[in-house]
């Protein structure tokens, strides 16, 4: 790995951001120390050509002002917390609300806006102070990226001085045809989930854990995304798929596979997390100008956000989302890029 450095101004402070490059014979990955952002993933198609398959920006300032979490590591709590409110150990906590009535991806200044210091190659570390965005406890967080052959592994670790909800994920948007391609309608997706979480009109889970059988959410066998999107209520997929049940032992499981037959590119995702949020870029609307002047439109990409179930801190039947003093939070997600 090797790095280059550039300075950027955010929230009144100027700080240095490094770009780290991880390279194997099959992949080239760029990581920014700003928010542990995956800036680019270049992978080969069946024609042997390398293509950047991750959405992003050409300049750092755009990442600082970004509202769509392109490539970012998000936290303390990825996804939504209803009303930005929860109770831990009898105490009420009110977070910044930044997504309708709810808190999304950590609040107004989630981890995606923090420059993370570098140790041991590409282990990126930061401290989230007690009270940060309204959350209790000082939390030490690290994200490690490791590239081995055709696999990029992200390992998330955290410790807290007080009991706090935590849920860390990466929010990369992928298009296996290349980040400038118009849509993902010609991609095939499969997700290893027997159930999913229905949501209310603000995208908060209703509490029901619903079987996928006989619904548009049955992705256990590969389906073409374009036709399936027409069957899904609302703007598209933005739902948690349940990879394991509450209380199941920590283990890495196969989660999802996406294939783009025209280029031959395949992305497979495995994770220790109990859920994966499949999101089809429903809220991209052409207002964002990305790499090479590309305007990112609705359904131009997909996210596979490995995570705990949304709003778990307020839903007793969901997997435990609390990190207590003395405990270690650790999760692993592996992205494997191949061709067919």
Automatic annotation (TrEMBL):
Provide the residue positions that the database annotates as binding beta-D-galactose.
79-80, 171-173, 238
| Pathway of action | Carbohydrate metabolism; galactose metabolism; Carbohydrate metabolism; hexose metabolism
Q: What is the documented function of this protein?
A: Mutarotase that catalyzes the interconversion of beta-D-galactose and alpha-D-galactose during galactose metabolism. Beta-D-galactose is metabolized in the liver into glucose 1-phosphate, the primary metabolic fuel, by the action of four enzymes that constitute the Leloir pathway: GALM, GALK1 (galactokinase), GALT (galactose-1-phosphate uridylyltransferase) and GALE (UDP-galactose-4'-epimerase). Involved in the maintenance of the equilibrium between the beta- and alpha-anomers of galactose, therefore ensuring a sufficient supply of the alpha-anomer for GALK1.
Is the keyword Transport in the record?
no
GO annotations under biological process? Answer: galactose catabolic process via UDP-galactose, Leloir pathway; glucose metabolic process
Instruction: Name the chain's protein.
Output: Aldose 1-epimerase
Q: Which family does it belong to?
A: Belongs to the aldose epimerase family.
Q: Which residues of this protein are catalytic? A: 171, 305
- Where in the cell? Cytoplasm
The entry describes its oligomerization and partners as: Monomer.
Q: Gene name, please?
A: GALM
Catalysed reactions listed for this entry:
alpha-D-glucose = beta-D-glucose; alpha-D-galactose = beta-D-galactose
